Amino acid sequence: MPYGGIFDLAGKQARLAELDPRLNDPNLWDDPERARQVTQEATRLRRVVDGFVALEGDLQGLDELLAEASEEEAAELEDERERVEHRLEELYREALFVGPHDERAAIVTVKPGAGGTESSDWAGMLLRMYRRFAERHGFKVELLDAVANSDAPSGIDYAQMIVRGERAFGMLQVESGVHRLVRVSPFDAQNRRHTSFASIEVMPEIDEAIEIDIDAKDVRVDVYRSSGPGGQSVNTTDSAVRVVYRGGTPDEIVVTCQDGKSQIKNREKAMTVLRSRLFEREERRRREEQMKARGEQKAIEWGSQIRSYVLDKQYVKDHRSGVMRHDPDNVLDGDIDDLIWSGLEWAAQSRAVA
Description:
CATH class of the largest domain: Alpha Beta
CATH topology of the largest domain: Alpha-Beta Plaits
Shape: globular
Number of strands: 11
Helix content: 40-55%
Number of helices: 9
Distance between the termini: 22 Å
Largest sheet: 8 strands, mixed
Structural class: alpha+beta
């Protein structure tokens, strides 16, 4: 098997052995959200483990038959072996989703780095790339907020969207980090080579099923007129909402939403993003404390450069997995599945090493 320790069959079986007694505990459903997480994890692990054992047995049986088959029989058995290996590859990919929130929607935030027009244009290119990726998978995209850059026709100074679909967060979470663009700038009259940066942040959408303590006195809600594109009512009424949170930290959290005509719905969406941001902040603090306790450095995926897009030399390179593509136009059009899968494999390998 080419999957080795990444698949970690023994580890998954051990985890199932831990979960089964908890599933039989009548007090489990006293906390419905925790019960849901435990049930989903056990179901996912059991499906993967049982499927892997069955497919492994099928492959072993096919190998035994091939050893004694005629030439004609061997051709048919090889076709069957390829089908089994394809199912095994699908199962392996399913095993890469181990997080409790992988099935949730993904909140994707795009921010340009320093560099003015160049970086804003690059951020706009990344926003389009992820929207095209979502379209290819049949995911639904809600653009919550976008601030256009006046000097770059397709550039942005900020954008945030929610991507809804099967394992949207599970897939897109590995895109968090800094993305680097190198190209001959279309904004430079001397045709010089420029380097631009933009950051991608991906959080799971946290709904009210997960309790997040938000004190009303720590929240200020402002309403204002939408500045983005929209219908007749969007730009003529105070429908846009800005939520400012100042609780528990000297750094305030600001969330804006101006994608719809309804101030009430925009407020609800802004509060959903705020809950998600508070949840993510707590999760990050917990991870950093765990790494500090183990004497580890900050994980490479947090705030570090993860990928370079070098357009004048026609390649895209993922710095974590080492995967390289030589068709940047297709990548920027949303064809990033192999880069995402390689990122998930890299994350699995990192967990195995840890």
